[in-house]
Amino acid sequence: MRALSILLGVLALLGLFAGFLPLLGWVNWFAALPPALLGLLLGVLARDRGAMTLNAVIIGLAALRLMLGGGLL
User: Which residues cross the membrane (predicted)?
Assistant: First the structure.
């Protein structure tokens, strides 16, 4: 479960990078938040602090980007 959590975190990080481009903030709803939330859940179940931290940081950055863009931009 630890490896799957980290893999989901890395995939969410790639989605987060795409969501930082102008006018592509909506990508965070589909490419960053769902995998990061699932990765966080798996990290909690595996009791792996590194995986939990990675996914929590990605969730925070994606949420911040969505707030700054009004949820879409």
Answer: 53-72
The yes-or-no verdict on residue 47 having pLDDT over 80 is: yes
Question: What does the DSSP assignment read for 10-27?
Answer: HHHHHHHHHHTSTT-TTH
Positive or negative torsion for Cα 55, 8, 35, 64:
positive
Question: By 3-state DSSP, what share of the chain in percent is helix, strand and coil, each rounded to 5?
Answer: 80, 0, 20
Domain that holds residue 33: 2-68
DSSP label at 48?
A: -
Q: Where does the pLDDT of residue 50 fall: very low under 50, low under 70, confident under 90, or very high at 90 and above?
A: very high
pTM: 0.91
Asked whether residue 64 is domain-assigned, the answer is: yes
Model pLDDT, residue 73: 65
